Amino acid sequence: MEPYELLLKCTSGLYSGKFIYLNSNEPEILGSGSFEALGVTASLQNVSLEPVHSKIEYKNDFFISDMSNQKGTWLKLIPNNLTPLLLSDQLKIGNIILTVTALDTSLPNLELSWGSKKIQVSKSLKISSKTPTDYIFPSLDYFSLEIIQQDTSYIIKVYNGIISKRIIKETKLSPGFEIEIGNLIFEVCLYNYGKWSNIGHRVAMEDTDCVIQDLNILDQPVSFYGVFDGHGGNSCSEFLKANLYEYLQRKLRGNRNIQEWREMIIQAFNECDLEYNKNYPEISKVMGATALIVMIIGRNIVVVNTGDSRAVMSRRGEVLQLSNDHKPDLFSEKTRIEEAGGFVTSGRVLGKLGVSRAFGDFEFKLLNKKTVICEPEVEVFELNPMIDEFIVLGCDGMYEAYTNQELILCIRDRLKRMRITEQDPSRVIKDIVTGAVHSRKTADNVTGIIVTLCAGIC
What we know:
With 458 residues, the protein is of the alpha+beta class. It folds into 3 domains: 89 residues, Tumour Suppressor Smad4, CATH 2.60.200; 89 residues; 260 residues, Phosphatase 2c, domain 1 (4-Layer Sandwich). The strands form 6 sheets. A 10-stranded antiparallel β-sheet has the order 2-1-20-19-7-17-9-10-11-12, with no helix packed on it. The radius of gyration is 24 Å and the shape is globular. It starts with 6 loop residues before the first strand and ends in a 6-residue tail after the last strand.
C-alpha cells in the first residue's frame, strides 16, 4: 500500500472553504500566533484559537496533538463507531462538556461530571435530548448516544447528533475525520473537492449528492463521490443519498480485488432498488433517480453509472469521458428495451421516460417487462498522478450547458488563475453550476462535484 497525503478542508467557521495541504516534511502548527515568534505555520485569526493550538506531524502517518491550554482540539465521533472511554476523557455536546471523573470496570462504574452534576453509568446508559432515554438533556439540539461496558472497558456509541471527544494524546488522522478547533471545523480529506447545486428554472430541486472521505471497507482509504438526479420528485434521489453507500459497504467490505467488484456493485444496486420499492411501493412506481458514483482506491478509479449523469476527467487538459449516458435511443439501450418487450419513441422508453436505466420507476419494471433497469455500468481506470488533474461528476443538466471539452477548459482556466496549493474546487464548481443556469440557460436542476487529483495545475 502506497503512502498518501492529506489535506484539511474547513467546512464551518470564518475560514469555511479554505484548505491546508499537510506537509510530510515539516510539522503543521495551527494557532493565532505568528510564525516568527511561535513557529505557527497556519495563523488563523478571530476564531477563538490559542496562540499555539494544534500540531500535525508526519510519522509514517499524520498525527494530531492538542497544544492548547484550555480550549482543546476536538475529534467528532463517527456515528455507529465504537470509541473507548478513559479516565479524564472529555465529551462535548453542544455547549456542555462531560468529563470522565471516575472509572472502575470491576464494580462496574463510570462517572460523568459537568459543573456540580454527575451521571453514574453501570453496565450501560443511553443519553439523549429526547425521550425515551435513560438521561435527558432537553435543551440541546437532537443527539443520542449510548455508553456501554464492554469486557474490561467502557465504549461510547453515537447514534445521532454532533458529539466530539477532546484529543488528549497524539491521534492518527484518517480521511473522514472532523477536527474542531476554536470556532472552526476541518474535514480530513484525501483529495480536495468542491460541490454545488442549483435548482435552475425548475419548481423543485430533485438532485442530491454525497461525499464520503473513506467508506471504511479496506485497510486503505476508499473515497466516495456520488450524484443522484431524481425525476418525478426527490424521494428516490434522497433515498439513494442516505442508503446506497451502505449497500456498497456491505458488499465490498474486505475485498481488495477490484476486478471482482463489478458483480458485487450490481447486487448492491439491485438490492437498494428493491428496498426503495418495498419502503415506497406507490411512490416508487412514478418516481426514480439516476446514480453516478466515483470511488478512488490507491491508483484505481472505479466509476459506477446508472442513467444519464456523466463523469469526465482532465488528463493534462485532454478530456477522458469515464461513463456512458444511458439514453433510450442509444443503440445498445434501444436494443435491450425492445428485447424486453418495450419500445422507444421520441427518445423515451414507451414514449414516457427519458432515461433507460434508473432506480425506482417501477411502472417500467413490473409484469416481467424490465424495460428500465438499475443495473450499472462499472469501469475501472488507472490513476496517473503525474498527468491526471481532476474529475468532474455532473447530472445531465450540467452537460446540457457544457460539452465535455468546454467543461474541462472552463474548470482548468479558473483553477490556473489561482496559485498552486490554493486552487479551490469549491469556488470553481459554484461558478460552473451558476454559469450553466444563468449564462448558458439550462432549464434543469444542475449539480456538480469537482475532485482535484493534484495540489495544483500549472
